[in-house]
Amino acid sequence: MRLHKEKKSEEFEPDMTPMIDIVFQLIAFFMVLVNFTKIDADNRVDLPVSSIAKPPGKSDKQPLMLQMTEDGQVILAGDTMAVESQEFDSRLFRESRRLGAIWGEAANVPVVVRGHMNAKTGDIQELITKCQSKSFQLFRLRAKIK
Fold first, then answer.
1. SS3 category, 74
2. Phi then psi for 102, rounded to 5 degrees?
3. Fewer beta carbons within 10 angstroms: which end of the chain, N or C?
4. Positive or negative CA dihedral for 98, 101, 102, 106?
5. What is the distance between the alpha carbons of residues 63 and 56, in angstroms, rounded to a whole number?
6. Is 43 buried (19+), middle (13-18) or exposed (0-12) by CB count in 10 A?
7. How far apart are CA 65 and CA 41, in angstroms?
8. Do 86 and 77 form a contact (C-beta atoms < 8 A)?
9. How far apart are CA 117 and CA 54, in angstroms?
């Protein structure tokens, strides 16, 4: 007499490796995305409070974001430099060329100026004058809403 072993029914267990891989890739993607948006708003710049300030409108193109610290330094794309420095002058020129190509010309590029509440008005005026020398014409000053 022959004995047959009973065949056990095998349960199907899906391979989770591809799904875990995709989840980690999405997490990495969103971490990089969040880091880029943090460049726009630096913690060293504490905006003044204004009762007439209104929320910024959304734009489909990139503005030029410049931030003035309390001690008169400018933050451009995460780098801090003096307004009168050659480094800032060359970076501003490159930005006018790059954004001018996106917007058609540098005069159409909105320049968003975030000035610290204790920054000197003359420093912000000097920053705007420097931008005007590179053909920027549209300026938006940021403040906290009261």
1. strand
2. -75, -45
3. N
4. positive
5. 12
6. exposed
7. 9
8. no
9. 17
Residue-wise pLDDT for 89-126, tens only, equals 999 898 888 888 888 888 888 888 888 888 888 888 99
pLDDT tens digit sequence for 20-52: 999 999 998 888 776 554 456 666 666 666 666
Chain position carrying tokens 């001018």: 100
Would you tell me how many other CB atoms lie within 10 Å of the CB of residue 58?
5
What is the rounded (10 degree) CA torsion for 75, 79, 80, 81? -100
Report the b/e string of 63-97 with b at 16+ CB within 10 A: bbbbbbbeebbbbbeeeebebeeeebeebbeebbe
Residue with tokens 């590179």: 134
Strands (E), 91-131: 110-115
Separation CA 11–CA 65 (nearest Å)? 57
Joined together, the tokens standing for residue 124 give 């912000």
CA distance 45 to 107: 26
Tokens of 134: 């590179």
For the entire predicted model, the pTM comes to 0.63
